[in-house]
């Protein structure tokens, strides 16, 4: 059984169809990347999983359980964390409060404290800035905080929507190596990227989406060598 | 002239603080709802009025049963405050559930008009019930805490006159202060308070954190309305007579106070309320004097609102409304 599975997902914004029958799965312990250009439907795919967009047709399964009609907060509580596009840090909450919000559904204070230590382990810079307001952090720091905040819930699946967007190459490098490290410690990851080359470098498998349809999928090593992909996404 | 203004200053401050504390707590209700929904909940003034009636009705009932005579007055007050605030809290939550939530995605103007409709509904409902029960919609509760306390402010500074206040002033002020401090603590230091601020800043992302946004919005309405209802009780005790229309003007002024402090800002609302109350009492005591009798005390509202307009001309976001730097 896949930890996460999308079967024939169709999603609309008003009259515009953004997803036209997306099939995708993620297995436990994998990094799976979803790549595609602007407007391809990557974010929409993540939003259908987290419940922010309701698919008109198709089903989503988490550990075999149908979560298609679950509300966003319910899906979050069932163990899917999404780091949204553009990070979406709470600008007027402090860094610490941002992290605490990530652990909103965690009742046990000791667990929250342990998770926070773990976040500091991955992102030492966050620790120095706990009382700063989220909105005043740099783009790279905000991305790290957004990831840390998502980890606070102790997710089974971590979904990242373009974590490299707008960041300097050296920061992107760091972020990707942390994603890899997280995965090596057992985290299942669904990574949305436009930065196809770097994403495929760390992913086990990849899907290529174009105008709402999965064009191609397979092992990252295979996709990296594919001529069509090389031309369209790795140029 | 200055000397004469100073004569009455202690009394102005006392009366202004009592009125301002009432504005402040009602303003909190407006500012909390605005902060989270960007909705001017016009019905909030009516929640305050409903609280005044519920509280007075309970006091009259307790008096009728002879309980007030045997109960310490403070205990009776506490009981009335708790019952009233729970009831008005649920009324506020109910209004959100029935009238506002279905319109969450509708244009703001539609919700605003609905809120005005809810206001009229509450006014008429309270008026109807009171008339049926009492034959008259103007209600005077049993008098409580009416003993006057003299303050020898003249011994502090000889230019001051002595001031005095009813015992109820202390009640109003202490209860108001407790409510404000508790709310401030709740919002800034607890998990659900943090969730309230998070939902106000970014509803979708809050949901991604596992926060049930509707529950948080319901909580905001409950708290704002509970405080508003309790303030109605304080108002009834301080000023004695109430009618179903007290919520309109007072609501308008409390809303003004919220704007003055920076709408959406909790501490701003508290400050704005106190400031407006003091300004109003100042004008009421000194307008005749300052304008050589051209404008009498009845122009106090014009004075207070002129100040508001001045503040907003120079600081449109209100006194505490900050323009927070946000990097995207
Ligand atoms: N809220 C919305 N209302 C209407 N159309 C939308 C909305 N959000 C997305 N769309 C449309 O749906 C399609 C897919 O958008 P989506 O955001 O999923 O793309 P994406 O692959 O994430 O792109 P990007 O890389 O630019 O983030 C696009 O055509 C977009 O214009
Ligand atoms: Mg996107």
Short synopsis of the structure:
Chain B: It holds the Pfam family BPD_transp_2. The complex is a heterodimer of chains A (235) and B (328). Chain A has 235 residues and is α/β, with parallel strands linked by helices.
**Major β-sheet of chain B, in short?**
2 strands, antiparallel
Percentage of residues in strands of chain B: under 5%
CATH architectural category of chain B:
Orthogonal Bundle
Q: How many beta-strand runs of chain A? A: 10
Give a count of the beta strands of chain B, DSSP E runs of length 2 or more: 4
User: Tell me about the biggest sheet of chain A?
Assistant: 6 strands, mixed
Rounded Rg of chain B:
20 Å
Question: Helix fraction of chain A?
Answer: 25-40%
Biggest sheet strand order of chain B reads 1-4
Apparent shape of chain A: globular
Q: State the CATH topology of the largest domain in chain A.
A: Rossmann fold
Second rung of CATH, namely the architecture of the largest domain in chain A: 3-Layer(aba) Sandwich
Q: Output the number of helix runs of chain A.
A: 10
CATH secondary-structure class of the largest domain in chain A: Alpha Beta
Number of domains of chain B: 1
* Structure class of chain A: alpha/beta
């Amino acid at each position: 059984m896949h930890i996460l599975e999308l079967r024939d997902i169709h999603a609309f914004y008003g009259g515009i169809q953004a997803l036209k029958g997306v099939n995708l799965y993620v297995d436990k312990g994998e990094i799976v990347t979803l790549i595609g250009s602007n407007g391809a439907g990557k974010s929409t795919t993540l939003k259908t999983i987290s419940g922010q967009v309701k698919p008109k047709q198709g089903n989503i399964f988490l550990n075999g359980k149908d979560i298609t009609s679950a509300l966003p907060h319910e899906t979050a509580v069932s163990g899917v964390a999404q780091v949204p596009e553009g990070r979406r840090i709470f600008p007027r909450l402090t860094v610490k409060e941002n992290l605490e919000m990530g652990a909103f559904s965690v009742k046990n204070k000791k667990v929250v404290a342990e998770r926070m230590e773990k976040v500091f382990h991955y992102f030492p810079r966050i620790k120095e800035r706990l009382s700063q307001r989220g909105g005043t952090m740099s783009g790279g720091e905000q991305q790290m905080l957004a990831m840390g905040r998502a980890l606070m819930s102790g997710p089974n699946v971590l979904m990242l929507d373009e974590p490299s967007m707008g960041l300097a190459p050296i920061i992107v490098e760091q972020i990707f190596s942390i994603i890899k490290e997280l995965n090596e410690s057992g985290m299942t990851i669904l990574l949305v990227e436009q930065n196809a080359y770097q994403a495929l470098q760390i992913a086990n498998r990849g899907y290529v989406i174009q105008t709402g349809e999965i064009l191609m999928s397979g092992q990252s090593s295979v996709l990296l060598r594919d001529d069509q992909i090389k031309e369209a996404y790795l140029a | 002239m200055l000397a004469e203004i100073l004569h009455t200053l202690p009394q102005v401050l006392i009366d202004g603080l009592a009125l301002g504390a009432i504005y402040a707590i009602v303003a909190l209700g407006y500012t909390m709802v605005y902060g989270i929904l960007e909705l001017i909940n016009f019905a909030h003034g009516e929640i305050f009025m409903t609280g005044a009636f519920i509280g007075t009705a309970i006091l009259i009932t307790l008096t009728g049963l002879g309980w007030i005579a045997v109960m310490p007055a403070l205990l009776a007050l506490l009981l009335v405050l708790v019952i009233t605030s729970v009831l008005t809290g649920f009324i506020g939550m109910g209004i959100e559930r029935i009238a506002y939530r279905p319109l969450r995605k509708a244009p703001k103007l539609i919700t605003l008009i609905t809120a005005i409709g809810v206001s009229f509904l509450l006014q008429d409902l309270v008026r109807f019930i009171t008339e049926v029960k009492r034959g008259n919609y103007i209600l005077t509760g049993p008098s409580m805490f009416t003993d006057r306390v003299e303050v020898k402010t003249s011994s502090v500074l000889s230019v001051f006159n002595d001031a005095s206040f009813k015992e109820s002033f202390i009640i109003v002020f202490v209860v108001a202060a407790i409510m404000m401090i508790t709310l401030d603590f709740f919002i800034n230091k607890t998990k659900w308070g943090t969730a309230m601020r998070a939902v106000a800043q970014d509803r979708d992302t809050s949901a991604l954190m596992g926060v049930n946004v509707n529950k948080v919005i319901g909580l905001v309405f409950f708290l704002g309305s509970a405080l508003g209802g309790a303030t109605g009780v304080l108002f009834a005790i301080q000023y004695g007579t109430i009618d179903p229309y007290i919520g309109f003007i007072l609501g308008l002024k409390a809303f003004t106070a919220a704007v003055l402090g920076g709408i959406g800002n909790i501490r701003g609302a508290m400050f704005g309320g106190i400031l407006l109350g003091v300004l109003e009492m100042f004008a009421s005591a000194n307008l005749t004097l300052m304008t050589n009798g051209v404008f009498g005390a009845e122009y106090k509202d014009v004075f207070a609102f002129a100040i508001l307009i001045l503040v907003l001309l120079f600081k449109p976001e209100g006194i505490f409304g900050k323009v927070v730097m946000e990097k995207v």
